[in-house]
Amino acid sequence: MNHTLILLAALLLAPLAETAAAVSSSIHPGQSWLDTDGVLINAHGFCTLRHGDKYYWYGSHKIAGKTESENNEAGVRCYVSRDLLNWENAGMVLSKTAQGMSPEVADAGILDRPKVIYIPATGRFVMYFKLYGPMTPEGKLNTKEAYVGVATATQPTGPFAYQGKFLGGGSETGSGDFAIFQDADGVAYHIAVRKPDKGRKDKPLVCGRLSDDGLKPAGEYVAMEGVENATEAPALFRHAGKYYLLGSGSSGWAPNAARMFVADHLTGPYQSLGNPCRGMNPHNQLGPEKTFGGQSTFVFPVPGRRGTFIAMFDINNPEDPVHSGYIWLPLEFSTNQPAIRWRSEWNLSVFEEK
Ligand code: DGJ
After folding, report:
1. Which CATH number does 33-352 carry?
2. Would the pLDDT of 6 be above 60?
């Protein structure tokens, strides 16, 4: 055997192997998702956005070694892609440690579930996130008042400048998990779980219109009739003239069964469609009863493909959040009944299947 030849062949093929490993042609739900540098994607409670010919993935950057009971987010990280499969790290677009950052962000105990929209009228990208106060002197998360933080940018990759916070939901204690839904006319709505306050113990999902610049609520919130109490992790989308809502139950970081609702109007009344999940995640043996081990975070209408949606979930890992995972699955409609079937590997060509 000619060792020099083998060595030469190995040297020549090595760069090819590296490129081949970095380029992905499919999505592998529930498995480690690496960016184009081969590093684990760190963007949780996330959303995606299409702008121009690129896609943007925004999520909370979790700090390695910290649990979800600690101040464990460094801010919001963004990744950019041209195909929804291969994601390049675009850096921290909102950093708690940025020079001159407001203490409301810098000292926040929770900075979670970021959602970003583009408002054509102002030419601004607006980012919303769950924003809680600083940790208590005893080192506990301060969940008394749950704010929505707002930041804006002129470019999708930021930097996003903090604009302030509001107590959403029409409650004195604010709101929890939320979705930002931009309707066909461009108007944005804040859909959130209202926190209990004086005299009100329930946790309804409520909807409030945002101001034209998207920076604050424009008026009262209304309860979304027909949506089960304490529905968390809401994700809204519109299909064939109807409004669909995907959400979870309320069990902290532990997975529970997904739930779905449909209505003719954004504020309802909604009708339950039950749990849209089908099949089983072979990596953890969890099926619809636990949403494959995930919790909804966003539903992305695939641009240019009318009626096609990607259902997006986090796999929470409260003891080691930096290793929390992601599940992306096609959301399929047959006779207007939505279904989210487990697939271990898929790409956008599934939307062409009959
Ligand atoms: C429920 C939410 O849906 C999760 O994303 C997370 O914020 C947990 N609460 C924390 O307990």
Report:
1. 2.115.10.20
2. no
